[in-house]
Amino acid sequence: MLVTQAQAAVIDVTVAPTVEVTEPDWLTVLETRAQEAETLGLFRQKFGEARERFTRLADIPVDLRLPEASVTTTRTFLMPERPVDAPALPAGFTRTYVFFDAGSARERAYAKAVIKDVPAARLVAVAGSLTTASAPRTRETLAGIRLYADQGGTLTRRFALTATPARVTVTTTTITVTQTALTDNNQETTP
């Protein structure tokens, strides 16, 4: 039903009695509290703590502390079935991951050697400092190589890793996991 302006002016319906607002204006309360916190230096303190935490996480994003492999082991699994709606992997697909402790010079040297053999390999730190691993002053430096971190240990659990360094090769049909024991001169030992 349409009501003209003249009819609307005549209609004066009170829906409910009005009551004066007695609760505080929340925006004013929040602004007051924020000013008090800034005056007391609480924001500066919290921002400093957050900056320290983010700096630490950028340097050492993960710390799974897997032991160094004492014996070289190789396991091969069949690739699990992909969901129907997942895109198919291209024919001949191969991806290599190298899991290593970024704080260990021996494991950094191993990772660097794998990159020479397989330039497309992805280096995944499971412990140690990425800053140390990328420092250009060491012979085992990984400067200029993209480093990944297994945050939360998702890949470590998925590939059932129990020691480092480990080399994981994923193809369309298989997953091969080799945990390598290193000698004193950073070479692989023979099984």
The average pLDDT is 83
Give the structural class: alpha/beta
Number of helices: 6
> Rg from C-alpha positions?
30 Å
**Which sequence of strands runs across the widest sheet?**
1-6-5-2-3-4
Report the helical percentage. Answer: 25-40%
Largest sheet, in brief, is: 6 strands, mixed
- Low-pLDDT windows of residues: none
* Global shape: elongated
Task: Summarize the entry for a quick read.
The longest helix has 18 residues, at 42-59. This protein has a 6-stranded mixed β-sheet with strand order 1-6-5-2-3-4, with helices on one face. By secondary structure, the chain is α/β, with parallel strands linked by helices.
Q: Could you describe the 3D structure shown?
A:
The protein has 191 residues and is of the alpha/beta class. The chain is 32% helix and 18% strand. It contains six helices and six strands. It has a six-stranded mixed sheet, covered by helices on one side.
List keywords for this structure.
191 residues; 18% strand; elongated; alpha/beta; 6 helices; six-stranded mixed beta sheet
Lay out the secondary structure.
Layout: H1 5-10, H2 26-40, H3 42-59, E1 73-78, E2 94-101, H4 105-117, E3 122-127, H5 130-133, E4 147-149, H6 154-158, E5 166-171, E6 174-179
Parallel strand pairs: 2-3, 3-4
Antiparallel strand pairs: 1-6, 2-5, 5-6
